[in-house]
Amino acid sequence: MAAMFFAGLLGSVHCVGMCGGIVGALTAGIDPARRQSGWRMFPFQSAYNLGRITSYMVAGAIAGAVGQGTLGILTPHKAVFVGHLLSAGFLIAMGLYLAGWWRGLALLEHLGRKIWIRIEPFGRRLLPVRTPPGALVLGLLWGWLPCGLVYSALAWSFASGGAGQGALVMLAFGAGTLPTLLVLGGAGTWLVRMARTAKVRVVLGSLAILFGVYTFGMAFSHAHSSHDKTASIVAVITLPSRA
Question: pTM score > 0.85 for this model?
């Protein structure tokens, strides 16, 4: 779970660009005096992000359940190995996407738009948001916004082993994105400008790639140790007994 929180924290720079306009729309209908007070805006920001992360968890539960049924045909060791490889691959793809070196995840976003075009009109009807419950519902809807980074996190949910674990994976990922998006409400212009800086995106993307490579190494290390343990057990079982 710590790994997914870290991934969410790295990816939250991308979230600034994706969700910055939504946060701006969230505050457009609120009294100007309240918008100038971070504490008075906190209930709106909290409600919006609660809704967003709840939608992530629902998607994670679905991905986890599908993954459990799909990977369930494999032996436990092979399922763990394939799950680690899948997670590492998407983490590297996330880093390449963040750094702007490869836009492969944009293909997944294109597929997600087919669902989004049916959801987005309902979100527009909620604007401008004037109450925290309205912000909560808006967050629930906007949590389905097509996003390559969210789809990368869902790969971890797919490999997590079940619906409950998949939901927890997305909870950790969403929590990682939370600090940046909460700050966005008060330091929007500066933060958006920084997030669009090429150097910042390259550094964060590189960190995600390194973490993905590390996950690949862990997958093969786990597979090797499991193979050694299995071989040792078989050797003990097949030892000839002494008369």
Answer: no
